[in-house]
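for ur thesis appendix - YbbR family protein. copy paste whatever u need, i formatted it the way the template wanted (i think)
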Amino acid sequence: MRSNWLYMLMACVMSVTMWYMVTGQERVETLIEVRVEFKGMPAGLIVRDGLVKKVSVRLRGPKGLMRSINEASLTYAVDLSTLKKGTSIVPVVVEKLPITRAFEVVEVTPSRLVLEVDSVAEREVPVDARVTGTVAPDVVVEGLRFTPAKVRVRGPESVVDALRKLHAEVPPPPADTVGDVLVDVPVVVPELVESTPAQLQVAYRVTIARREVVLSRQVRFDDIQGLRIKVAPAKVSIRAELPRSQASDAEVLKSIEARIELPEDVAPGVLHLPVHTVSPDGVRVDEVVPDTVTVTIQKR
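the 3d part is after this line
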């Protein structure tokens, strides 16, 4: 009997404490966000506009209990099973919010959802691919090919019916790429529209735009102390190809030289030596005329 009185006393104390927490504390307002989940969407329909991820709820209640609210666990379920094509207004029902009675719901934003509902449509749409973005100087993308030529799209009827052609945006080729390139590129579709397949296989070839130049150059060599060196002919003609943007660059052209290498044990006499060229990266020398010169060496 004594123990029962003890339990009754503890229950009374706890009840008074809870009553004080709910009614006796300072009442404050706070704003929380409640995640929205949609369920029961009828087959063959799709919501084109009006869906929200969360609603804002202004609450009033005891200050002490406000700290106990865990927004991450709050979810409001919206049943869409009665939707029909067109505009549907779905009110946010306060009584169905996951809020305990210890709090008063002051305001819900939005208080209703205005949903634009459309039929789901499918059809084939032609597609093309194009290179977008900035292509590096002198880089030429040619022979662009892609498969398939059409994709099947699925989405809101009003959006699908308006589609005439879709595009796949091919990024510029990576730096220093030359030759054949094969990439998978996503098809760009409007919001709520799906494409099958979702990607195109795109093939293209990368080349460098080049220009041919013909230059007259003095044949250069390293002087050797005590010897007089004469080269005939003193100049040669160099035919070279270089990137188009460099063909008019005076500094680049100036750096293309013609040289001969004298033997380390060179002695007075006559030599016939090949002409070598020195050029910056990207320059291709196709011909030197003449490619051999006569070198006369005399003592000073």
